[in-house]
Amino acid sequence: MQVSKRLVVRKEIPMDNSRDLISSMDVAMAEYYCKNNNYDRGLEIYREAISSITDEAERNCVINQYINQAINYAQKLNLDKKYIEAIEQYRNIMKYSGFPINIYKNIGLCMKSIGNADLAIKFLKRFEEISPDKEDVYVYLADLTYTDIKDNRKAIEYYEKALEKNPNNFSIYNMLGHLYSTCYQDKYKDKQIEYLTKAYELAPNNRIVVKNLAYVLGKFDEVQKADEFYAKLMYLSPTHSDLHAYGAYLVRHQRFAEGFKFLQHRFQKEDLNNVAFPQLLTTKKKKWNIKFDIKDKRILVHFEQGFGDSIMFVRFIDELKKMCKEVSLVVQRQLVDLFKDSKLGVEIYTEEQIPSINYDYWIPMMDLPIVCETKPSTIPKAGGYLKVPKAKINAYKKQYINDNDKIKIGICYEGTLASKETDRDIPLSYLYPLMKLPDVEVYSFQVDDLTNQMDRVPPDANLIRLGRTFKNWEDTACAMNCMDFMVSTDNGVMNLAGALGIKTFGLFNRIVEWRWFKVEGEDIAWYKSIKPFQCPTSGEWETPVSKVMEEIDKIRCKKIADKIKGKGLKG
């Protein structure tokens, strides 16, 4: 029988010491098992041997062998995506002093792979603290902080550290430009453009880099340069999301004809995440392609997502009616009463009623500007187009509005989660001074107080929570007609105020959504009754609010003067 060389006792082992012989035999067997990929058994024998060795030098030697074999096994498990088993091996290694410090990094990456971002960052930070060579761990930390923890500002810090030793990595430059744009909006303009320009120099044909640079240039109204990069993007196999972004850029810069056509890619965007469009909008069956005559056809116009979009684009129904035989309008249930009472001249349905509608073709509501060949100078019905019967307004006023001569102001400071993510909302605390005016009543039009801000209004601030009385958008419209004017951020309530022709002070952040190409002067083009007040820099709400307060002071002074004048006339 042939004996494995690994089992031959080495000469330097004392022959008269049976314990040493057993330990040597254990180490040889452990090495043999590991070499033949039976790591579990081999590493188990290593650990048993280590516990029985009394000589410190020999014990340390065996520990080093064990650590090397355990690392090999953990790496193999990692490659096989057996991350928990790999972590178990690393955990066993950490029981012995002198293990390599990159164990912290390896555990961190395994934790990342199983979705435990918090522990991943803890181990990677530990590696960062003690490792003399940190450039790769900064990339890992940045990626984790960005994708899992979603702390973009901390991610910027790590990416900038990684850049010090990776000066030619276009991906890091691209991420930094993108994150500065996302986190700081209009701030750090130079950094945004500098990082993305460097990324472009290193990777001139990278689609994502070109798109990000085009977007940032467009955001800062560097139109000529933005046009150049969007033009290049068209030759880099753009995604639907890219084409939609281009459409938003074009509309924002008053090129409606092209812009709204590119915005049609909204239904195929790759980054829709959990956004769900109405069922009809997900099929091409009977969809009107806007390329043939419809004068003898019945057209179904379907809402898309937000209430604000439906309110804004329903203005085009009158023009569409002139082009076809009949129009049927499908809207959200909460808008049906309001639209019916507005006498739009079409039948109005909910989505559930579609099977009962007789139509030839359908079209999504936000495509109507294409059909009507709308230009910024020809936006229809900017003065208002929705209305509520006087009797309903009076009934609502009698039940919910205080009967006094105070100035009544309606406010809406936040929209849906989407508006929060795009920095359109204002913290309610900025409007506290408005609520403290003695001759003013402030009514909140918030239906959902997503951030529970109304619960924190100070006792000396007068805020009446009117939104809890709204059953649908017609109730909201009735309430608006009881106000002297509205103060609102960019949301559905603001759109309704404009559609009703209600005097409104619109609060806009520095970077606005694509549809608001005009946020200066006396109106916002889409709505003549809305006067815009914009932050000079992102999040600097003090300036627009103070200007609104000046406008309110003028209204208050005029009312006082009129009252005095009225008393004088009576006298």
How confident is the prediction overall: mean pLDDT?
Answer: 92
Count the beta strands.
10
Q: How helical, in percent, are the residues?
A: 40-55%
Q: CATH superfamily name of the domain at 390-562?
A: Glycogen Phosphorylase B
Which structural category do the helix and sheet elements fall into?
Answer: alpha/beta
First-last Cα distance? 130 Å
In the sheet with the most strands, the strands line up as 7-6-5-8-9-10
Task: Tell the overall outline.
Answer: elongated
CATH class label of the domain at 390-562: Alpha Beta
Low-confidence sequence ranges:
1-11
**CATH architecture label name of the domain at 390-562:** 3-Layer(aba) Sandwich
Tell me the strand percentage band. Answer: 5-15%
Taking the sheet with the most strands, its summary is: 6 strands, parallel
CATH fold assignment of the domain at 390-562? Rossmann fold
Number of helices: 24
Q: What is the rounded Rg?
A: 34 Å
Write the layout of secondary structure elements.
Layout: H1 18-35, H2 39-52, H3 56-79, H4 83-93, H5 102-113, H6 117-130, H7 135-149, H8 152-165, H9 170-184, H10 189-202, H11 207-219, H12 223-233, H13 240-252, H14 256-262, E1 298-302, H15 307-313, H16 317-321, E2 326-330, H17 336-341, E3 347-349, E4 361-364, H18 368-371, H19 390-400, E5 407-412, H20 417-421, H21 432-435, E6 440-444, E7 463-465, H22 473-480, E8 485-489, H23 492-500, E9 504-508, E10 530-534, H24 542-570
Helix pairs in contact: 1-2, 2-3, 3-4, 4-5, 5-6, 6-7, 7-8, 8-9, 9-10, 9-11, 10-11, 11-12, 11-13, 13-14, 15-23, 19-22
